[in-house]
Every structure is written in structure tokens, then in C-alpha cells.
Amino acid sequence: MGGARGVPVAGRTMTDARALETGVAPAADPGAPGRSLWHRLEPTILGTTSIVVLLVVWELLPRLITVSAGTKLFFTTPSQIAGTLWRLFATGSIWTPLGVSASGFALGLSLSIVVGLPLGVLIGRSRTLNAMLDPFITAFNATPRLVFLPLLMLWFGLGLEMKVVIVFIGALFPILINTYEGVRNADKTLINVVRSFGASEWDIARLVVVPNAMPYIVAGLRLAIGRAVLGVVVAEFFGSESGLGVMMVQAAGRYQVDVVFSGLIVFAVLSLAMTAMVQVLESRLTRWRPQRAGEE
Amino acid sequence: MLDEAAPRQSFTDKHRKVLLGLLAVAIFLAAWQAVFLVVPFNKLFVSKPDLIWDALVKLIASGDLIRDLAISAVPFVYGFGAAVVVGVALGIVMGWRERVSYALDPIMTIFYASPLVALAPLVIVFFGVGVSGKAIIIFVLSVFPFIFNAQAGVRAVDRLLINVVRSMGGTERDLYLKVIVPSVLPYIVAGARIAVGRGLIGILVGEFFAASEGIGYAIARFGDLFALDRMFACIFAIMVIAVVLTEGIRWAERAAFPWRAGQ
Amino acid sequence: MPAYISGRNVNLTFRPPNRGPVRALQNFDIDIGEGEFLSIVGPSGCGKSTFLNVLLGLIKPDSGDIRMDGKPLAGPGTDRAMVFQEFGLLPWRTVQANVELGLELKGMGGDARRKLSQPLIEMIGLSGFEGHFPHELSGGMKQRVGLARALATDPNVLLMDEPFAALDAQTRDLMQVELLRIWQTAKKTVLFVTHQIEEAIYLSDRVMVMTKRPGRAKKIFKIDLPRPRDYEMRVTPEFNKLKLQIWNELKDEITV
């Protein structure tokens, strides 16, 4: 049941637990037919209720307790945040920083796919290459890529290049490692099956290795999206001249807490939307997989 | 299994993977060092292994590196410790009580999808650049793997095994010690492995921002000073710590839960 | 009887990385007549499946002479096809696309493939399931697809590697009947590897007992039961006598 969160990616660097990092978390399957209406709706109702309660309590908090003047500077309410979000979009002042952030995100993520996929296939197929690159992959994957930020600022300046590079090194490893795992876990029997029909190496890749790796790659992509967003945020916090993150840091300095939360919400919506897109892609690409049940 | 005496394998065959890895690292370092025989060397822009090594030795000898690490370790221990306690407790309740998980899953998903790092400026402005601000950032970043994994671990407890132990007359205590803890613990330890990386991000974010000491501050400062050899030395130190922590936990997982090998 | 497939002095040793070598086949001899149904029984790991893979052309033996229809064996070919124990269906392909796999790899166009696959899918009783994915099928249905896929390229030889081992007992009985029916109409040479003595006797013209590893032919039993065979035959004294004889040969080779 726990496997419902993502593809179980086992082995060297990706354990089942790492796959949980995708974090999209439908609980135990409640939609089983035959249960009463309340039972089927219970998760939705409870989930919605808790969010509503949270928002209402947050909204009413300043009226329930007296907040000191100092703390008040740091306090905002959901209605204020909603108003600020509305204003940001209505005046159009959010589009420029959002565009800057989005282009860093898109370029870095694309670059990580372009590099990570072929490299993952290569080390999945070659034992020697795998053995040689393993120390580097282990070391870089364990280290928060953030340590390279000051170095990258020095090398690439405070512009788009630096952002693209930090997003790239953040998103590269989930894609690389998952592709590798997917390629390596290709079923030997299936390879033998197609070989027994006279298949070439190319046929083996086309008919067995790549389709088998697909769910792993998509799971890696989901992880990569989270890392890419993180990369954009930190790059803009510490070393950029423009972007959504810059807007947030400046707002924090001016105690405009509602603007900080607005930025956070925009980032969250972006990454949820991207994740949802990947999930659509996933269900398209993996129609052949048993729904949920397949993960023993 | 083997019905013939297996002839002794040569050393190179047996350790092929490790040797190839070491070889690759050696080639990488040699190439890095050698490339500046051809390319002009600008120490304000790049560094090379021998200089980095010298810087590392000096930083260790002067005690600076150790002091910075020790300073960064304090908020890490607080933040990470709180994440273990809160995350595991919350995760277990969410795994055990279906209703609680219905109520909290959507919120958790939203929190988890938000780049919570983005709240760091606020936390720093509010709590200051001391231990508490950093510890809170570390806690916020590293608590989720514990919640999700503890929840998954509880859900994965085999009800059949509970019935087996009950049917043999096991008490509640037996149930916990013999079934539940051994099932859940591997998940939590695996969660710790993920959380370590996120906690390290927390330290760096906190210290890049506005700290006056600590390893993250050291890296940022050496960057500002164009002291690339010392900056690389600090980066290397963090790499070593990160690898030791994650691989150490991985090793502990294999040693403590051998039945999970191969998963 | 001139042998359609003959193996002489076949030797094969595996040399897996990080472990010692394993001798799988030693001086292995075999003769199979054209259109014959030959079963091989032997202890686990005796090399019987390995030999099927050698015949299929996936593994090259270290030494020995293997001929088919008088010609030495060279690599995989469409004159042989394998039915695998774990079915070996590509999970991302529908029933039809799985059946057509070999035809597709031969470069045959879509329409031509359909003409060949349609009657086969009908024959295995899966009409209406063409668009289903393997995970939507039962074990018995999956293995029917595996069988149809092997027959699609119209091979002369069917190699079957414990094809029914993953099925429950009743499905297995039904699949055996089905296999005999197909074998009798399609006139293939069949080499059938199994653990079950009863299955081997029921299906085969001859049953070969192999030694434990490194595998050699220990003894060959001719099964003179009349054909077509039916289920009642399994409780006759002749059948049980054969079963006991084969078991007596086999049991010395088995270590628990």
C-alpha cells in the first residue's frame, strides 16, 4: 500500500523510501466500491475540513490572542495573502520576476534531462563506466548541491547562467540515478525473449530496456521538479538580480510577510502543476501497468 | 551451491568495481592538476588539488575548520532531533489512525510541494541568525521524510504477523517488540538518510543568509575573498561529511536490518 | 530414425563474475527425431534449461557439436521458438502485439502480421482479448499467449522450459491437453523441460532423465502409451509403472 506514492525504485541509491520523497500521498485506497457514501467521501471531507479549519484559525488568530507590536510585523492572514496575490497578478507586477524564475527553471531542468537520460542509459548498460562514475555520483548525490552556490556565483555571475547551472546540478541526479536503475532492472528473461527472435541491440533497447525504464524515469522526473524549484529559490535568494525569489527576499527585508507568502504559494502551485503534468504523462506512458496493485 | 571447488579468484577480479572507482578518482585528480600545465592558472578563479590540499591541512591545523563545523553542528543536532521526535510521532499516528491521515495528508502534501526553503528569510528575520533560526529551518526541511516514512512503515506492518504473535499468546509488549518496531524501524532509518541531506541544506541556507560563523558562512566568506583553495577545502569537508552520514546510515541499515537486503 | 536435432559431447561452463566457475553440461549427448515430443526431467540446476538456451542459440557451448537438420547451429533463428516458464510477455504490449513480436522482428508489415496472429489468438481461445495487457490476464491465459507467440513464426522446433510450472494444478492439466492437441495438428518437434514426472510421461514419446550437475543424459525411457492420450490414462498400471521407474532413476540425483 505504501508503494502508492511512487514507483518503487530499489537498489543502490534509490530505495523505496527515497521514492516516498515524491510526496504525492493518496492514503489507503478508500474508493473501493460497496462502501457507503460517507465512507467513500470521508477522506475528501476530512481533508478539506482540516484545511478550512487551518485557514480559519489562522485568519482569526489576531482576534483571539493579543499579538505584541513586534510580532505583528511578522504576521499576516490568509485574506491579506489572497489580496496581495490578487494585486500582484492584477497589476501584472509579478509577471517579470515569474518569467525570470520560470526560464531558469525550464532551462536547467531541460538540460538535466538532456544530460541525465543518455548518461543513465550508458552507465546502466556498461559495468565499467558504472564502476568508474560511481564514486562521483555517490559523492555529489549525498552532498547538498547548495555548497557550490558561492563558487557558481563566482564563475557565472548573478544572471541566468548561474541559475540554470544550480537547477541543472540539482535536478540531474534524480533523473540520472532513476534512469540507471530502470535500465539495470530490465528483465533478463524479456531480453532473452526478444533475442531469441533475432533482435539486435537496438531492438532490445527499443522493445525492452526503454519501456521498462519509463516508470523509473518519470518518478525521477517528479523528484527532479522538486529539486529544480529548490534550485531556483536558493539561487535567487543568494545570488540573483531578479526573479520571484529575489522579490521574496526583498519583501522579507521590508517585513512584507504577505508578499513572501504569495511568492511561496506561486512556487508551490508551479511545482504542484508540474507534478500533475508529469502524472498525466505517467498514466499515458504506463497504461500497461496494473493500477496500484502491481507493487508487491 | 557450487559443486566444484571454486578456484581462488584474483584480487583484481574480486575488487574490480572498487579499483575502477579509485582509478577514476585518481585520473580525475591528476587531470585537474595537469590541465593547468597547459591552461593559464588564475587562483582568483579556479584552484587545483595540491593547493586545496594545503589549504585543508592549514584549516585543520589552525582549528578553524573544526570550530566552524562544531558551530554548525549545534543547530543541526537540535533541528534534526526535533524532526525525529515530531516526525516519527506524527507519522505513526497518521499510519495507525486512518482518519488522522485523511485529515492531514492533503496539508502535508501541500507543505511538501512548497519549497519551504522560501520561508528561510522570514525565519531568519524573525528568529535571528543564531542557533534557533538555523535549527528551525533544519527542522522544517528534515521533518517530512520522517513523517512520510513512519506512516508508510506503520501501514506496511503485516497484519498476518500480528495475528501470528497473538495466536501464540503474545502480549501487547511482544506485539510491539517483535512485530511493529522491527517493521517500522527500517522505514524510519531510511527516512533519516533522506532527512540528513535536507538538514544539510538547512544549515547552508541558514548560514549563507546572514550568519557570522559556521561552515556555510566560511564557504560564502572564502568566496567573497576569492580564496578558492580554502573554499574548495570547505566544500570538500562538507562532501566528506555528507557521504559519511548517508553511507553510514546505509551501512547501518544493512547491518541492522539484513532481512531487508535487496530491497 | 535419423535425428532431426543432435547434440554430441556438449560442454559448457559458466564463469560468473565474483564467483567460481560452474560446470553446467558435461559430455551431454542428445538425439531428437523430427516431430518427436521429448521431455527432459532432472534435478534442479542440472543444466536442462541451459541446454534449451543453447539450442535456442542464446548461449554458445564451450565445445561439442550441435546440429539441426544436418546443419550446425548458429545463433537464434526463426526455425526454433521458446515458451518460457515465467511467460516472458512484454508487459507494455497487448496480447496481439505480444503474439506478433517475432513477426515484427522479422520485418513483416502490420496487415500481414494480423493475418497470421488472428487465427492463432482464436486457436488459443483468446478472441476478444487482443487489446488486453498481460497484467489483465490469468496465468493460464498468459501462457497461451506465450504459446501463440512461439507458434506465430511457424518454427519447426518448440522449446518449452517448464512452461506450466507457474500455473495451478488444474490449469496445468488443461494446458497439457491443449498442448497435445496443438502438437498433433501443428506437427512440431517439441523439447519439453519439466520437474513433473507425470507431466513428462503424459505428454512425451520419450523421457530423458538427467544427472545432477554437471548434467549428462542418464537414461531414456520410451513411452509406448497410445495416442491420443486422455486423462484416464494417468491412473493405469502401465502409467504408474513408468512413473515409478523414472522416479527410481531420478531420486539418486536429487539432494535436498
Descriptive notes:
The complex is a heterotrimer of chains A (296), B (263) and C (256). Chain A is an all-alpha fold. Chain A has twelve helices and no strands. Chain A folds into two domains: 45 residues, no CATH class; 191 residues, MetI-like (MetI-like fold). The N terminus and C terminus of chain A are likely disordered. With 263 residues, chain B is mainly alpha-helical. Chain B is built from eleven helices and no strands. The two termini of chain B are 23 Å apart. With 256 residues, chain C is α/β, with parallel strands linked by helices. Helices cover 34% and strands 25% of the residues of chain C. A six-stranded mixed β-sheet of chain C has the order 6-7-8-3-9-10, with helices on both faces. Classes of the chains: A mainly alpha (296), B mainly alpha (263), C alpha/beta (256). Chains in contact: A-B, A-C, B-C. Chains A and B meet through α1, α2, α6, α7 and α10 of A and α2, α5, α6, α7 and α9 of B.
Query: What assembly state would you assign to the polypeptide chains in this entry?
Result: heterotrimer
CATH homologous superfamily label of the largest domain in chain C: P-loop containing nucleotide triphosphate hydrolases
Q: Could you list the spans of chain C in which at least 5 consecutive residues all have pLDDT below 50?
A: none
CATH architecture of the largest domain in chain A: Orthogonal Bundle
Overall geometric form of chain C: globular
The proportion of strand residues of chain C reads 15-25%
Q: Give the total of beta strands of chain C.
A: 10
